[in-house]
Design a protein that fits this description.
The protein is of the alpha/beta class. It is built from eight helices and twelve strands. It has two domains: 5-121, Response regulator (Rossmann fold, 3-Layer(aba) Sandwich); 129-224, Winged helix-like DNA-binding domain superfamily/Winged helix DNA-binding domain (Arc Repressor Mutant, subunit A). The protein has helices at residues 13-25, 36-45, 62-69, 86-94, 107-121, 155-166, 174-181, 190-204; strands at residues 5-9, 29-33, 50-54, 77-81, 99-102, 129-132, 135-138, 143-146, 149-150, 171-173, 214-217, 221-224.
Length: 226
């Protein structure tokens, strides 16, 4: 069985060395690029299973690189950056990043997120049912059960839950969810989204005030956790 491949696009030699040592020890094959131009070329010629992308590259802004890659590269991209502003994180996620970690980061958390992103990118199984502990979502029947109880969800609540669950572990921004579920005219209606998230939590969470499935990423969006 071949090892999963990771391409690190980062101009900091120490970061590349740390990532190479850490990921190789975890069973990954690692290649490196120090510029945006070199990174895009490597993705095009030898597509990796996952890309770790720095925002502060010397020849091109990492957001632009991400936007360009997402025109044709469908595998996971995780952003690693010293930039921790809400604007930068939201922009990267809206451009198609699967995750965003702020430097300095914990290597254990990074490898866990890499494995999670790779699992999500694996070919979907034929089953149309997702089971998360006591929560079972049947996409064919458009039904949701908590334990043995069939939950009564509105069409919008079901669509929102299905979108979150199918992207389990990934942060979905407010703007992305509003666009996908309600359409372009609702992209700025974050309060509207909060109302539906609150309604969903009341139905699927054991304690809506301490959710374990639908987690808030403050100022950014929501993440579904199994």
């Amino acid at each position: 069985m071949s090892k999963p491949t990771v391409l690190v696009i980062d101009d900091e030699a120490q970061i590349r060395k740390l990532l190479s040592i850490t990921l190789q020890a975890q069973g990954f094959e690692v290649s490196e690029a120090t510029t945006a131009k070199e990174g895009v070329s490597k993705v095009a010629n030898h597509p990796p299973d996952l890309v770790l992308l720095d925002i502060g590259l010397p020849d091109q802004n990492g957001h632009e690189v991400l936007h360009h890659l997402r025109e044709w590269y469908t595998q996971p991209i995780i952003i690693l950056s010293v930039q921790s502003s809400e604007e930068d994180i939201v922009r990267a996620l809206d451009y198609g990043a699967n995750d965003y970690l702020v430097k300095p980061f914990r290597t254990g958390e990074l490898t866990a997120r890499i494995r999670s992103a790779l699992r999500k990118a694996a070919p979907a199984e034929s089953s149309s049912v997702l089971a998360f502990d006591d929560l079972v979502i049947d996409f064919a029947a458009r039904s949701v059960k908590k334990g043995n109880e069939l939950l009564k969800l509105t069409a919008t609540e079901y669509s929102l839950l299905a979108m979150l669950a199918k992207n389990e572990g990934k942060v979905l921004t407010h703007r992305y969810l509003l666009l996908q579920i309600w359409g372009p005219s609702y992209q700025e209606q974050s309060q509207y989204l909060r109302v539906f998230i609150a309604q969903l939590r009341k139905k699927i969470e054991t304690d809506p005030n301490r959710p374990v499935h639908i987690m808030t990423e403050s100022g950014v969006g929501y993440r579904f956790i199994a």
